[in-house]
Amino acid sequence: MNQTERFYRIDQLLHERGAVAFPDLMRELEVSRATLRRDITYMRERLNAPIVYDDEAQGYRFEKQSRGPKYHLPGLWFTPEEALALMTMYEMLKSLDSGGLLGPHIAPLMARLNAILEEAAAPAKEMLKRIRIIGTQRRRADSKWFELIGAALTGRKRLEIVYFTRHRNERSTREVSPLRLMYYRNNWYLDAWCHRSEDIRIFSLDAIEGAKLLDTRAKEVSLAKVDEELGSGYGIYRRTGKHWAKLRFNGAASTWVRDEIWHEDQKMGVEEDGALVLEVPYSDSRELAMDILRHGENVEVVAPADLRAEIGRRLEAGARLYHGRRA
After folding, report:
1. What angle do CA 317, 321, 325 make, to 5 degrees?
2. More confident site: 93 or 73
3. Which of 244, 258, 243, 263 is nearest to 298 (CA)?
4. Is the peptide bond before 304 cis (omega within 30 degrees of 0)?
5. Which domains does the chain have, with CATH numbers?
6. What was the pLDDT predicted at 263?
7. Which residue spans within the chain are E strands per DSSP?
8. What pTM was estimated for this model as a whole?
9. Phi, psi at 87, each rounded to 5°
């Protein structure tokens, strides 16, 4: 780690442990005695860190009451992953506080996060002004169903839900045992055991039009089983018994797709003419088809034949709709 990262690590250790012996600091930082002495001296003299040696504790600690200049650590920028985590949490809490899923319950969390950021180094606060996350295609889920589902999950109770299945334009009443909540592509989903179909199903929370907590004990299904059933296919429509889609992208699209992760088990290769070939597993083609269609004429479905035919039908239907409107 570089010097600035060591300063933050020393600060963290002294705050967490109260007093830390010199050999323990050397071991945690993986530095020599001379380097650690230089770091502590720099923090004291240049950063105004109130670090003192406690003879009784036989270690370094922060002085409880410091009358000197205010102590500030130097700015430490974030990795892309840390920046995304911080901003995603902040933006999610902000959206929930404005009337989303948790409503007024989220206000104390927002207050705590704001307090942390107020005490953080300048880059943390500056980042809130300089980085923006835009949530696309987010659908609103009714907060009362979210809270009710949460109660069913923690209390291990069944739910009776009125569910609208969009692709069939159909409403149905289901008795389900909630297993897990999931946030995916800016929307909330419930993995649950459906007692009508006697199988694990995925329910979009925004499509739940009514819900009632039942006094019946929920069916217990291990999360390992849920992962086994739902964790292998493509996107939200993932099931076991998956197929493999083979997609061929031309030069215009390949420069984008080569850096994308469509699935953790995907296979990727480049042909002699420069075209990119991507293979991804799937079982339900709906979400995969949407991702294919966004590349338009720059992608060819090589296999399987039924997926190729489905994409062809969708393109033809879109063309008919376009020409019909033009007419």
Report:
1. 170
2. 73
3. 258
4. yes
5. 3-62 (1.10.10.10), 80-130 (no CATH), 143-227 (2.30.30), 243-326 (no CATH)
6. 84
7. 51-54, 59-62, 157-165, 170-184, 187-194, 199-204, 208-217, 243-249, 267-270, 276-282, 299-303
8. 0.55
9. -70, -35
φ/ψ of 86, rounded to 5, equals -65, -50
CA–CA gap between residue 148 and residue 157 (Å, rounded): 10
How far apart (Å, rounded) are the C-alpha atoms in residues 58 and 25?
12
Would you give the distance in Å from CA 13 to the centre of its chain?
29
Q: Token match 């739902």: residue?
A: 230
| Tokens (6 digits) for 153 | 């999950």
Using left for φ > 0, alpha for ψ between -120 and 50, and beta otherwise, residue 171 falls in beta
Q: Are strands 243-249 and 276-282 parallel, antiparallel or unpaired?
A: antiparallel
User: What is d(CA 54, CA 60) in angstroms, rounded to the nearest whole number?
Assistant: 6
Token pair 């001379």 in the structure block, residue: 34
Whether 205 contacts 141, CB under 8 Å: yes
Name the strand (E) or helix (H) holding 253: helix 251-257
Q: How many other CB atoms sit within 10 Å of the CB of residue 144?
A: 11
> Residue 283: what pLDDT?
82
Mean pLDDT of 311-321: 82
146 near 99, Cβ under 8 Å? no
Tens of pLDDT, residues 230-282? 766 666 666 665 789 999 998 778 888 888 888 888 999 998 888 999 999 88
The type of residue at 185 is R
Instruction: Compute the distance between CA of residue 58 and CA of residue 259 in angstroms, rounded to an integer.
Output: 52
**Token pair belonging to 150:** 């949460």
Are 159 and 209 in contact, with CB atoms under 8 Å apart?
Answer: no
